[in-house]
Sequence to fold (256 residues):
Amino acid sequence: MKNTVMIKAVIIDDEKNCRDTLQWQVAKYCPQIEIIATADNAESGLSLIRNKKPALIFLDVEMPGKNGFDMLEELKEINFHIIFTTGFEQYAIRAIKFGALDYLVKPIDKDELITAVGKLNSQFSHTSLEQIKTLLEQLKKHKDISSQKIALPTLHGFELVLLTNIIVCESNSNYTQVRLASGEQLLISRTLKEIEELLDMYPFFRVHHSFLVNLAYATRYIKGEGGSLILSDNITVPVSRTKKENLLRLITPISL
Fold:
């Protein structure tokens, strides 16, 4: 029998049934994970992290008193992986995604659990302080797009980019080419659909199955069956016929 290196983990969740269920799921579906302890509040969780030094924590987003995000702000070092668990708060889920972190929505699906745990052996091996800082910034300023950053996963790590600096995202098979206002282009290891889910807010709009644009950079629309949209730096992107009507509503005060 092969010796398997177990990943030591803790669960921090104020609901006992959630802790018990997740512990059972991990034991059944993720044999490489060993739950070494659980905590029912943030203070106990901080104590576990400092004393047990786990490689992974399953962290509940919403807890009475001090929530999971408050807890993270008290840590000076993040040297473990985090999988957030949450039952609601769509804005929090978006913030977690912006930080390129993993999360599970309650009730937790076993396949999603297996997928999240599987990432531990990939490029997502450790959560960085920069990712946590990005997450906390999004939670505090999620209504102000001018200050928001997104962590874009590249082949070499993560690029932290201001949303306002993104001009256009173009599909490139299972990757996405992101063009920035500086002229720099990043190859992101996410599909355009995944990027669209992250940027599901104005002024970002999917004008074509291959293009997601920041309408703040739109300078002209050229009529046609679907037409074309001209962006800064004379970037031209096609507009699909099915997207034309909604696009015109966004960029003109009256329908054309």
User: Anything to note?
Assistant: The chain is about 30% helix and 30% strand. The chain has two domains: 7-138, 144-251.
